[in-house]
Amino acid sequence: MALIITDECINCDVCEPECPNGAISMGEEIYEIDPGKCTECVGHFDEPQCVVVCPVECIPKDPAHPDTQQQLLGKFFKLHPDKTPYLPAASAAGDTAALSKPAPTEGC
Ligand code: SF4
Ligand code: SF4
User: Fold this and answer.
1) What's 52's domain CATH number?
2) How confident is the model at residue 94 (pLDDT cuts 50, 70, 90)?
């Protein structure tokens, strides 16, 4: 599931540089998250970095973008084709399937 910034955002600028996917940018009035780039930090960190740093806790999950873990990982591979994902939880559980790269789709 991608995350979304609500109108409680105070434009403190803290989250934007923390996003490993470049998914956060300034919108018309407040910061916004590009759901096509937000992986909930899957592949990079244990937890969403924007949520960790936000002082007003205004970054919930976006029900309009209910990505599965595999879909989030698919976004990671699309954004970072040459990187190996960091998946501590999956690795610890022996979930090696989560580490496999999705098969390329036609037209990509
Ligand atoms: S959860 Fe991670 S990838 Fe998504 S917007 Fe926040 S920092 Fe970026
Ligand atoms: S950290 Fe929170 S309050 Fe600050 S710009 Fe990001 S979403 Fe807005």
Assistant:
1) 3.30.70.20
2) very low
Residue closest to 31 by CA, chosen among 47, 51, 61, 10:
10
Q: pTM of the prediction?
A: 0.85
Q: Check pocket membership of 19 for ligand 1, CB cut-off 6 A.
A: yes
Q: What mean pLDDT comes out for the span 10-15?
A: 98
Residue 22 lies in a domain: yes
The boundaries of the domain holding residue 46 are 1-83
CA of 81 to the centre of ligand 2 (A): 28
Give me the mean pLDDT over the 35-50 stretch. Answer: 97
Listed residue (33, 32, 30, 20) closest to 85, CA to CA: 20
For the Cβ of 12 lying below 6 angstroms from any atom of ligand 2, the answer is yes
Cβ–ligand 2 contact at 31 (below 6 Å): yes
Total domain count, the chain: 1
- Ligand 1: centre distance to CA 8 (Å): 17
